[in-house]
Amino acid sequence: MSAGASLSSRIGAALAAPIGWLAAIIDAPLKIWQRATGTTGMAAFFLAPNMLIFGVFVLAPFVINFFYSTTSGNAFFLSDRTYVGAEQYARLLDCGSYLDTSTCREDLFWNAVHNTGLFVLLQVSLLIVVSMITALILNREIVGRSFWRAVFFFPVLLSPVVVGLIWKWILQRQGLLNSVLFQFGYEPTEWLTDRFWAFAAGITVSVWAHMGFFTLILLAGLQAIPRDLYEAAEMDGTKPGRMFWRITLPMLMPNLLVVIILALIRAVQIFDEVYVLTGGGPGTSTLYLTQYIYEVGFASLLRNPGLAAAASILMGAVLVVLTLVQLQIGRRNEKKGARE
Amino acid sequence: MKVKISIVGAMAAALMGSSAAFAGDVRVMWYSDGVEGEVIKDILDRFQKDNPDIKITLDNVAYKVVQEQLPIQLESGQGPDIARVTNIKELANHWLDMRPMLSDPKYWDDNFGSTANWMRPDGSDAITGFMTQLTLTGGFANKTLFEQAGVAIPGEKATWDEWVEAGAQVAKSQSLPAAFAIDRSGHRISGPNVSYGANYIAADGAPAKVDDGVKTFGGKLVQWVADGKMLKETWVAAAGSTYRAAAEDFINAQIPFYYSGSWQVSNLSSKIGDNFDWVATGSPCGTAGCSGLKGGAALVAIKYTKNPTDVVKVMEYLSREEIVKEFSERTLFLPAHKGVVDKGGLKWVSQDKNVPAAMDAFVKAAGQTLPNADALPSWKWSNAYYGALVTRLSQVMAGEMKIDDAWARIDQDIADKVAQAK
User: Fold this and answer.
1) Which residue has the higher pLDDT, B31 or A1?
2) pTM for this predicted structure
3) Where in chain A are the domains?
4) B64, B236, B393: best mutation site toward chain A, by most A Cβ within 10 Å?
5) For a disulfide at B397, which of A337, B225, B341, B401, Cβ 3.0-4.6 Å?
């Protein structure tokens, strides 16, 4: 053994000793506790801190939020609010036609629902396609591959507010993009005050901000596909497009499903970067559900916490469904993996 | 039926509000738009020197804290002892009635009587505080741009149409994006609405249906956006009742005319500097008058204080005529003290030659407000009206709603707010 290795071994032992003593001290009462409560009791004991935090910061707010949704009035504290049962839900769901928001009593809520639905559809589709293409490119032996991976992941590290501000500087009337267009003789475009462009800008910015994360998941999936499958296909003269559809996509499907579900959940929750970018405008064309809840519950001049709570419960129900789908897919993949 | 979930309420109260002062201390919650934080600190330091037995703590906070956190603290019976607030009517139940403790209540009635209703519950004669600043909505013109365009600045009695037309000529001549901008705020368009004959308040004190005055000026705003005369992004690029100021566009000389209010004087002065000359114009006229809308921030005593005697001492000191005069002169705020206003001769503390004229213009315009506008600051449904106007008119401007539908929605939105409060 070299002198260096011996030294590091001794340092390691010195550092490990206090941990050993600590473990011995803890061990005795734990053994007594285990004898008293059994294995199930020990599991509950170790889970208790986590469940306590979950209960205080997740479960309790959810229950309180539900109570809020059954009350009305301007008062903040539940004890001062009037119980109205399901009235807030009835108000939200009161529509002549759910496809025509002008027939709805809470038209802004339904504008937000429609916008969120369209946003989810377009943003998730675009996000998956762009992330997939990026992952496929980054999976190849390209020059500066590590650099490009970092470049595409970088926006994920940015705060959503920073993302919104950066793109606002680019897209506003006197922003970078219009300046560049002007240099080339084009008229400035109303990127943030035209309903179509503002909606498109929200999707683009959101895809830019989140694609790095999903690219990373897909890249990990691509690297797990055995190379010999491609080599065998090449020997059979299979074209690249067919290899993608017949090998890459089926092998990547477990990762892809997780990506789709996560992207769906995130898209339903969209708020900060688009809020900073467009404020929900023009009109209500980029008003999404989370912003609606925030506006009604906190930001409007006369707040309505009950209505906001009811809207958040409805939105939460959608998210629960998506989460259950994700769990189901996860279990199915696990079973499939176990069979193979 | 009232639900009684007092444990939850108590827990939330304990979590959210814990800044109440102990006896002997006076805690002041203050926010600043400009230099007023430094000025009030200076004044309070002098008070403290003369009254060493009272310990004053000045908490300089963001305006958002006053708007969003203070109401929650107050609901839980907590909060500071004194606060500078703008939401003075809706929270009036939390203010301390100082009348029984004041050494000279008549001084307060005489000098702050005209705004006392703004900050006390309806039907009460309580003295709860005083306005630290009286604001008035009004316009600003970029004198340099008008001169460069060879367009005369419209006169005192010029209408909104004349102002917008003049601004459009300047914008065309100087290649500017729009003739004018107005802050995205229901408060800001209410003076002009009243100038066209609007009355928000029904005979019984409840909100009236949207009338021809609102429809006239609202319709003009929508048309001006469609014509490209009003800066589109201020109103269109946001949803709901989100506040957006257009001050930066005026400061950057992108618009020749800007409708905002007296509180912008200090901001414009510090940011424009010598870049161009500007003037305050008062409010353009409609068919019923040339009204702006008064408003402002008040300093109020909080009824949950454990130290009312010392709180009243501090409030009496800050409300003194010479202190109000000094505060107004140094902060460039319009005073709400009748004695100060009547005596006049305020020496605005500024090196900027545009400032004294602008402040004098606002003082003059304060005398032109119409009764329907003067009633709004003390009316409890003002915010319901303001929010509905902004939300729905923005939708019309963005092209997603017809204007007739917007009027119906505004009435419905306001009715919902009234029902919600019952």
Assistant:
1) B31
2) 0.83
3) 2-69, 88-339
4) B236
5) B225
